[in-house]
Structures are given as structure tokens and as C-alpha cells.
Amino acid sequence: MSDIKRVVLAYSGGLDTSVILKWLKETYACEVVTFTADLGQGEELEPARRKAELMGVKPEHIFVDDLREEFVRDYVMPMMRANALYEGLYLLGTSIARPLIAKRQIEIARQVGADAVSHGATGKGNDQVRFELGYYALAPDIKVIAPWREWDLTSRTRLIEYAEQHQIPVPKDKRGENPFSTDANLLHTSSEGKVLEDPWEEVPDYVFSRTDNPETAPNTPEVITVDFERGDAVAVNGEALSPAALLTKLNELGKLHGIGRLDLVENRFVGMKSRGMYETPGGTIYHLAHRGIEQITLDRGAAHLKDELAPRYAELIYNGFWFSPEREMLQAAIDHSQEKVSGTVRLKLYKGSVSVIGRRSPNSLYSEKVVTFEDDQGAYDQRDAAGFIKLNALRLRLLGRRDR
């Protein structure tokens, strides 16, 4: 690693990555290029640019990219087509952002002729795996620097001391121990650590930032519609919206009604269990709306196969294998299943809950004529069921005679 001349750092402008920026220069005597991604985290990103300039990064080597539309269109929506939930609950808000950040870092590294890339993920978490699997998939020979696995700055106190020694500005609110850490993007906000580490203790109210308290949410339900075309949401309440604008609108609706809170103890890829609070207001509405339109447009065999594939697909994303051939194979099958998944879903939002209350589609497989309890005028011959049942019962009857 001694021959590194230039490195692209995933840079937020916060204390950790600012210390990393200086540490990289000192440790590797290299030039640092910063990359800050706007994924809809709701923060002003120009301060990150100014801070990078203050720390000596050349203006042409500071990248602040608005990736919101690409994030939702090319990552969130394909994942939503799969109905992916990790361990049956988690909508993968952090996981799905990492491959896009990794991809853009590698693109910048090629553009500026960098030898290496670097990230601020710790050696205990999943993100180090997600970033680095992405890097190596896209640039097999790239060098990766993970400072948290190398340096001796093992506490917040040491980070602040290092920052002060090297004239790195430390905001007043960063001098004390944070009560918890957060990660945010357009799909979700995750919070973990410190006050959340005891899984028996209820999450304090001050942790929540993306959702209003369901208990104090409006007392009147709100009914909305979501339109789908080929498995992707394209409009809310009849208004056509871009992918990022659509998720933003659903986030606003979900926040108002306290939708999308999840208290989860999950199994990290690195082996340990961790407890986190996830807020995914728009994504929760989107997920249930997509399931609603699939109910009338997917054949039973296709729907059940998708449900079998979804946990595997979710695990691949959670573990960082977005760029793997198996994820791409699954995506091809899932996308094929969505060709007729078009129509409108009506949902009721009320005090933390989302209910599908209506669905319609020009491609619907639902037939009132067949399913009716009234006279179906020959659409279904009930006498056929006798042979159907007997054939399915044959092996059970043979087992019963043998074992009786």
C-alpha cells in the first residue's frame, strides 16, 4: 500500500471522515479526492464541499453528486419489485444505498486516476463488507483503505484529540458522546448504538426523526391511490411523479401518519446481533401498495415463486452482493414477473398503519364471475372438485391405509 498516490474517500464532512481525510494524507502521503453523495438524507451538502476545501482538497477533486433519482430508479425500485424484506421485516434502507456509493466512487477513481478508495465504516458492521464487495466487483485490482481497521483512534475522545491536534474544526454538538448514531437517505433513517443497545428498553421518543408519533397522528384516516406500471410506482393520487419525487411524496404522507417504524434485533453478516430503529415511511406504503397490485395481476405460481425467492434476494442485498451474478439472475426473473403488474391501489393511512382497501388493473386475473357465491352461469363446474380432491388425497389415503 506504500505506492498509493491518490485515494477517493467517501466523505460526509462530519468528524469521522474529516479525521480520515487528514489521517490518509499523513499515513499514506497521498492526495485525497472527496466524494459526497446526495441520496436524499435531508442535509445541506455544500458545507462538506467547503470543509474539504478548508482541509486542502483541490476544488477539482471535490465531488458532491445528486444521486437521488438514480438511487430510487435503479436501486430502490428494482428491490421493491422483489418485495424484499431481510428477516421478514427490514426494508433494507441502508443496504441498498451502499452499492450506488461504491459504484460512483469507482467511477470517480477512474476519472481522476486514483490508486485506492476509502470509507469510514467500522470493523464491526455490515457496511465495510457492502462497500468493499462493491469496489472489488467493479474494479478487481483497486486498493481499499479502511482506517477503522488500521488506526489506533479507537474512541470518540481520541478522534477529537486528533482533530484538535491537526486544526480540524469540531462542532460543539460533536464534543460529547452521541446518544446514538444515524444513517439516512431518501428511503429511510436508521438509528443504533448507545441508548438503543439494550433490546429490552423501549426506544426513546427523541430517537425518531422521520415519523410523527402514531399516537398523536391525525384522528381521521387518509385514503390515497398509487399507480403502477410494470411493477414500478409512477403516480400518487393521480399525479405522475419521478421516482425520487414519488418516494418523497410517500415519505411526507407516511411521516404525517406515523407509518414505518421498526424496532429490530437483526443478524449482521459479520456474525453479531444488533438492535436498531428503522423509519421507512414512504417505503412501507410503497411495499404494501406493490403487494396489493400483485395480488390481482400475478398468477399463483409466479406469486408463490417470488415469495420463495424474496428472502434470498433480500439476504444478498443485506450482505453486500448487489453486483453478484446470482442477484442479477434473480432480478431478471423478478423483472419478467412484473410485465403485467400495472394498475391502481387504494390505501388507507391511519395512526401508524397502512391498509390496502382497493385494487384494480386492466391485467387483473380476478374474476367476479368465477368467484361469486351467486349463480356463476356455468363459469365453474363445482362437480369437478371431487376428482381434484381425490387425486390430491390419493397419497394421503395410501399412507393412511399403511400406517393405520
TrEMBL record:
L-citrulline binds at residues 90, 95, 126, 130, 181, 190, 266, 278. Pathway: Amino-acid biosynthesis; L-arginine biosynthesis; L-arginine from L-ornithine and carbamoyl phosphate: step 2/3. Its main location: cytoplasm. SUPFAM superfamilies: Adenine nucleotide alpha hydrolases-like, Argininosuccinate synthetase, C-terminal domain. The keyword ATP-binding applies. Pfam families: Arginosuc_syn_C, Arginosuc_synth. It comes from Sphingomonas natans. It is an enzyme of class 6 (ligase). Homotetramer. GO terms for molecular function: argininosuccinate synthase activity. This is Argininosuccinate synthase.
